[in-house]
Amino acid sequence: MKPAPFAYHRPTTLDEAVAMLAEVAPLEGRVIAGGQSLIPMMALRLAYPTHLVDINGIGELDRVAVEGGELVVGALARHVRFETPVEPGPTGRLLARVAHNIAHFPIRSRGTMCGSLANADPASEWCLAAVTLDARLVARSRSGTREIAARDYFLGIMMTTLEPEEILVEVRLPLLPADARAGFYEFSRRAGDFALASCLCAYTLEGGLIARAWLGVGGAEAHPRRIADAEAALVGQPAGEAAFRAAAEIAAAGIDPLEDANTNAAYRRDLVRTVVRRALEAASRDAGV
Amino acid sequence: MSDRIDITLTINGERHDIRVEPRKTLADAIRDDCGWTGTHLGCEHGVCGACTVIVDGATVRSCLMFAVQADGASIRTVEGLAQGETLHPLQEAFIANHALQCGFCTPGFLMLAAGAIERNPRMSDAELIEVLSSNLCRCTGYENIVKAVRSAMNQMQA
């Protein structure tokens, strides 16, 4: 239960950090931010990086700001920061509800949103939010900066298009329209445990009918994904039980379910049906509209 | 490759200049290098919360930080709660409400509750239960821990 030995580096600027990472990435070196997933994996000897580049000393990464209709979240913004809305619209309210479902209070005091995105656990709430809200991820390496659309970012269970020598420096989440209603629901067996299925959704209304819809499912497949067919089933319908049930059926039928010893495909589909319906119901009750 | 590094930790106001391997967790450094053995280690991978301490105002699991990451930090552990012979209201409330049996988890629960109350002195029952769900206790069934923290919180507001 003790991590294997590694060399420790603590850069104070991003330039210094990417230069160090370029050197140590080919030697199985890794970045550490909050460390709330990486350190347990090291303790269990599932991960044994030879070098850690600790980005906690890089002040410029500790930021959350609204810029040009996007919420910009730097690599050192910790989960706890989102427990109270970081902006006054539906996105701030939604992220606050989501944040309370991430692990536990002491983990949220240390873990970061960008760290969750880099780790890419299938059950990660922030990965679900990023892909459903069409986030752009900004990766920096010694050779420059590139943006990755969330829809192109996830490859599989804990696998992404982030290169070993890249640092995920920020994520840019487009703000939902001010009149959007948003909801989130997840099911897990114990408080704070990994979700067996989760849904994050939002919609706008025009003339009593759903005009735009965002709906993503997490925890059920190798990575969270927007479900376009379920969104299409909502658009043009009144926001109510019939449309919500139709979207839930489509999502449940459309997933490629993860299976394990306790969770077979049929159970996972049942859970998806339920979490989608409950997330949509939560959106219909979204206060502040 | 894993040369030891000189760091300074200030624990409950006392300065410790120590030299540690990067892989040493903050929990191990607090106990083994600095001698504050009130902080307990249960699972060593962030599940049980027995090692909860407060680092520069943030309530964290000390098994999920490396000691080198806490260089220069001010750390509070369970030994820092009492003022001399006077126990902290949380400690008094744990005794009065029979909120511990074997006591192994108690340092973690006390620091978890202390950190949460500092952040929000007026937690609702639901918020309190959410916070206390962070840590594991195998003896009490939690009810008496909830009662104790609620009672201490009320007293600290009075």
UniProtKB/TrEMBL annotation, chain A:
Transmembrane spans: none
GO molecular function: FAD binding; oxidoreductase activity
Domain FAD-binding PCMH-type: 1-178
InterPro entries (alphabetical): CO_DH_flav_C, CO_DH_flav_C_dom_sf, Diverse_Substr_Oxidored, FAD-bd_PCMH, FAD-bd_PCMH-like_sf, FAD-bd_PCMH_sub1, FAD-bd_PCMH_sub2, Mopterin_DH_FAD-bd
UniProt key word Flavoprotein: yes
Top-level taxonomic group: Bacteria
Pfam families linked to this entry: CO_deh_flav_C, FAD_binding_5
UniProt keyword Lyase, yes or no: no
Keywords for the protein's UniProt record, in alphabetical order: FAD, Flavoprotein, Oxidoreductase
Name assigned to this protein: FAD binding domain-containing protein
Phylogenetic lineage: Bacteria, Pseudomonadati, Pseudomonadota, Alphaproteobacteria, Hyphomicrobiales
From TrEMBL, chain B:
A GO MF label: metal ion binding
Residues forming coiled coils: none
Top-level taxon of origin: Bacteria
Organismal lineage: Bacteria, Pseudomonadati, Pseudomonadota, Alphaproteobacteria, Hyphomicrobiales
Protein name: (2Fe-2S)-binding protein
UniProt keyword terms in alphabetical order: 2Fe-2S, Iron, Iron-sulfur, Metal-binding, Oxidoreductase
Domain 2Fe-2S ferredoxin-type: 5-81
